[in-house]
Amino acid sequence: MKILLISNSARGEAIAEALLRSQPTPELFVASTVRSLGLMRMAKEVQVMDIDSLAKVVQMAKGIKPDFAFIAPDDPIGAGLADRLECVGVPCVAPKKTLARIEASKGFARNLMKKYGIEGNPRFRVFSFSSMDAKRQLDLDMRHYMEYELKGQYVVKYDALKGGKGVKLSGEHLSTIDSSAQYAMECIDQCGTVVIEEKLIGVEFSLLSFVSGTATVDMPAVQDHKRAHDDDIGANTGGMGTYSDSNHSLPFLTEEDLKAASAFNCRIAAALLEECGEPYKGILYGGFIATKDGVKVIEYNARFGDPEALNVLPLLETDFVSVCQAILKGTLTPDLVRFAAKATVCKYITPKSYPEDKKEKGQTVLVPEKIPENVRVFYGDVSMLDTGTLQLGGSRSIGVVGIGDTLHDAEQAAQAFCEKITGPVRFRSDIGTVESIQKRVDLMQKLRRP
Ligand code: AMP
Ligand code: GLY
């Protein structure tokens, strides 16, 4: 069995590692943006390339003739790599372009939910303009919507892929109505539309599902930490770290919350089939927020989360290749998927100036050779030179995952290993700590109080 993996980050290494635990062991070929240490060790072949050049990936696939491809990142999925590969006879665990709009267009996702009666949207409007004359009126309309209809509590969303960095919140990244209107107009100038929506208050979590048409099988729920610094301060990033609990729920969620999130994923898969006329085959990532009024949808992604994949894939006890084949054949059933009852904490090592700058690019990072049994290390934007030196790129560098019977054990394992990594890097010490999790539990209790 030959598998082609398209990877741009540590998430790709987690996928590779899970695929290679399958029996019989498949041969793995990787198109990767970086010369990643883990991929070099695991794969039969790694071709370093610009994976957004779809033609190059297709050319590689034609040479390998894999049984299937697994596309990890959002950009090639959004650009239609699955369509291109399927044209040359390579089935893909990733949705086609029209289905991937669930992630690539936040307006599409909100309108899909509205059209199919899937509750869980905040109040929202998608703004666009058709002529320059309308620009002033549009500016006034957006200001009115933000100031009066949403009462100053709003979120402005770039309506295309932007690596989790196109979203700005009132009172945090947008301090005045002028700067908000200006950002909204910039979004329209760049991608034609902007989504402005109600700012929800609550605690966020991710629930990812394997999807094949209308069949969905959930993974353990995960909580990501998007802000750059401890105590959830600073710019939004791709995700600084994550945790998952041994019962596959999260300490601040009720059973109903988890059921609601699961039902959203199921209904979205069904709505996509109806809307697009073809089945979604891949990973569906629901980004949710538990609020005083129940679970609401923050966003949908058409792929594994990064770092969410680093939490859940090491816990997958069943055969990942069989899961992928079932997704492709339309035979996905819950019995094919079982996760270990363990807690995980992932902390991302990043360059010191991430995400604002890339000042440390090209500098060296040192990682201990000996990795404890309860720790997994996945390399992201770090290149391995011929000398064996590990060189930082500008983006998230190394995902360190601690695994344990409790969140506390998992956190301690991840923290201890992160502290041993040296170079011009940093990480969030607060992720997965008892104090940090208690804060979320307390907030949810306060919000739920009548
Ligand atoms: P997204 O790319 O849509 O996941 O947005 C990035 C981050 O912005 C989310 O993880 C949230 O922290 C925040 N966010 C997005 N939409 C909302 C919303 N409607 N209310 C509150 N926060 C939001
Ligand atoms: N962890 C956030 C994402 O993958 O989009």
Can you give a write-up of this model?
It is globular, with a radius of gyration of 21 Å. 49% of the residues are buried. The longest helix is centred in the middle third of the chain and has 22 residues, at 255-276. The protein folds into three domains: 2-96, Rossmann fold (3-Layer(aba) Sandwich), CATH 3.40.50.20; 123-198, 2-Layer Sandwich (Dna Ligase, domain 1); 203-439, ATP-grasp fold, B domain (D-amino Acid Aminotransferase, Chain A, domain 1, 2-Layer Sandwich). It is α+β, with helices and mostly antiparallel strands and 450 residues long. The termini are far apart. 34% of the residues lie in helices and 26% in strands. The model has no long low-confidence stretch (mean pLDDT 96). The chain has helices at residues 10-20, 37-42, 54-64, 74-78, 81-87, 97-104, 106-115, 135-149, 177-191, 255-276, 308-312, 320-329, 407-419, 434-448, and strands spanning 2-7, 27-32, 45-48, 68-71, 92-93, 124-128, 154-158, 167-169, 193-198, 203-212, 215-218, 223-224, 227-229, 233-236, 241-244, 281-291, 294-301, 343-351, 364-365, 375-379, 382-384, 390-392, 398-404, 425-426. Strands 12, 15, 18, 20, 23 and 24 form a six-stranded antiparallel β-sheet that branches. The structure holds adenosine monophosphate (AMP) and glycine. Glycine (GLY) binds next to loops.
Fill in the keyword field for this structure.
alpha+beta; Rossmann fold; Dna Ligase, domain 1; D-amino Acid Aminotransferase, Chain A, domain 1; 3 domains; six-stranded antiparallel β-sheet; five-stranded parallel β-sheet; 24 strands; 34% helix; globular; binds adenosine monophosphate; binds glycine
